[in-house]
Amino acid sequence: xxxxxxxxxxxxxxxxxxxxxxxxxxxxxxxxxxxxxxxxxxxxxxxxxxxxxxxxxxxxxxxxxxxxxxxxxxxxxxxxxxxxxxxxxxxxxxxxxxxxxxxxxxxxxxxxxxxxxxxxxxxxxxxxxxxxxxxxxxxxxxxxxxxxxxxxxxxxxxxxxxxxxxxxxxxxx
Length: 173
Prior knowledge:
Elements (H helix, E strand, L loop, with lengths): L3 H17 L10 H8 L7 E2 L38 H11 L4 E6 L4 E6 L7 E2 L6 E2 L17 H11 L12
Parallel strand pairs: 1-3
Antiparallel strand pairs: 2-3, 4-5
């Protein structure tokens, strides 16, 4: 019992000493890494209206079960209207949901580029950007029942996302 306080003090000093040995935070390190760190999260403004989605994965089969391993489990909703946290967004956008357009990595430019996904192209806007028109690709169906995805379905999802009366904690609020 007598050793608890000195042990805690020594541990605290050791942790502080080790943390002091970390990087200086200066930009004198690897210039390429510093450049990459400055651009984190930048998607760029690249677009490829002629690109086709979705990506075909060799050997992929319909059906089955996907198990998602997490450290803490999904602690928040995966309802598309209320998704907010990045861990759930990653699971939803990577495994469950689709969008009219999406970003795809372009190894030539080393940037993300906007490409059509469920839409046939990147959409068309009016003069003041208040109205966008998209055409849904032929053959896009709901995974649950095989019914075709319609423009009304997309409009419903978008309106549901901004329905603050029903979803007051949603990401669009």
